[in-house]
Amino acid sequence: MAILIQHQETETKGSFYYELAGKRLAEMTYSKAGTELIIIDHTEVDDSLRGHGVGVALVKYAVEFVREKKIKILPLCPFAKAILSKHPEWKDVW
Predict the structure, then answer these.
(1) What is the pLDDT of residue 64?
(2) What contacts 24+ positions apart, CB below 8 Å, involve 59-68?
(3) Which of 6, 23, 60, 70: CA 20 to 30 A from 43?
(4) Between residues 3 and 53, which one has the greater pLDDT?
(5) Nearest CA to 41 among 33, 53, 49?
(6) Which pLDDT tens digit goes with each residue over 22-35?
């Protein structure tokens, strides 16, 4: 299953999400804390996608996003924090 993560951003908030047939089935939301930090506050994946790696794909996309922007992540969301903790190669972003 190909997982295409999309990104939506406003001046103060944003989300990384997976959509199928116009329906958002997975989403990770964040708030901007200044210009150098995003705070991931929530991750939700539809039951139909559990076990397919969509949640991990959301975190991976967030890591790539902050690396490109040269900023950091503060993972308040327990899921995001757990996934980041399992990947020492992502330690540079949080």
Answers:
(1) 96
(2) 59/28, 59/83, 59/84, 59/90, 61/5, 61/7, 61/16, 62/16, 62/28, 62/30, 62/38, 63/90, 63/93, 65/7, 65/16, 66/38, 66/93, 67/92, 67/93
(3) 70
(4) 53
(5) 33
(6) 999 999 999 999 99
